[in-house]
Amino acid sequence: MTLKNWCAALVISAGAVSAAIAQSDFPPSANSKQAAPRLVEVMSMAQLQHLKLWHAGKAGNWDLAAYELRQLTNSLAEAAIFYPAIPISNVTTMKEPLLSIADAIAAGDNRKFAVSMRGLTDGCNACHASMGRGFITISVPTGGQPPANQIFSPSESGKKK
Ligand code: HEC
């Protein structure tokens, strides 16, 4: 499945989580109990994925960016599926920016990537505002240090030809 189809399928389909688990390279043990993560855990994960997505795109590491976009899409789908109190419309509005980021990654288009990331970030904040969490304001990183424990430049084999 292309990255774009993945984003579309996960965000709009109610079977998103089972699809995500089915498609993971590392499925959980058959004995594991499927406990729902706390919503703040899913969101804290989304925050880190959003940050890494940004730095990977900025560094032109499109393989890593594609990977982080998948993880972030999974997190948003999980939030919607485990927490039905979240209005589904607030999740589906994320679809356009996610697709747009997928396009930018496929094209290796820095400008489109940055614009689409801002659109996505507005979507994060719109949902927070609508759910009495307007004080949680996400932004694209404004300069400063990326997570200092990960290297974001692509390795030789990860560079686009
Ligand atoms: C569809 C709604 C929705 C969307 C979209 C959404 N969030 Fe959230 N987010 C929430 C809700 C609701 C909470 C509050 C959870 C709580 O208080 O238990 C939250 C909380 C958070 C928190 C606080 C967690 C903490 O413990 O500090 C962060 C960070 C966060 N979201 C990041 C993001 C990011 C980044 C995005 C976009 C990529 C995003 N969220 C998109 C609904 C959403």
Question: What do these coordinates show?
Answer:
There is one protein chain. With 161 residues, the chain is mostly helical. The protein has a domain at 1-11 and 39-131: Four Helix Bundle (Hemerythrin (Met), subunit A). The chain is 61% helix and 0% strand. It is globular. The mean pLDDT is 86. The structure holds heme C (HEC). Residues 39-40, 43-44, 46-47, 50, 72, 76, 86, 90-91, 94, 120, 123-124, 127-128, 131, 133, 136, 138 line the site of heme C (HEC).
Brief summary of the model shown:
The chain is mainly alpha-helical. Helices cover 61% and strands 0% of the residues.
Keywords:
Four Helix Bundle (Hemerythrin (Met), subunit A); binds heme C; mainly alpha; 161 residues
Topology:
Blueprint: H1 3-12, H2 16-23, H3 39-58, H4 62-82, H5 88-92, H6 95-107, H7 110-130
Helix pairs in contact: 1-2, 1-4, 1-6, 3-4, 4-6, 6-7
Largest sheet: none
Ligand list? heme C
Number of helices: 7
pLDDT < 50 runs, ≥5 residues: none
Order of helices and strands: HHHHHHH
Give the helix/strand class: mainly alpha
- In terms of DSSP E residues, the strand content is under 5%
What is the CATH domain class of the domain at 1-11 and 39-131? Mainly Alpha
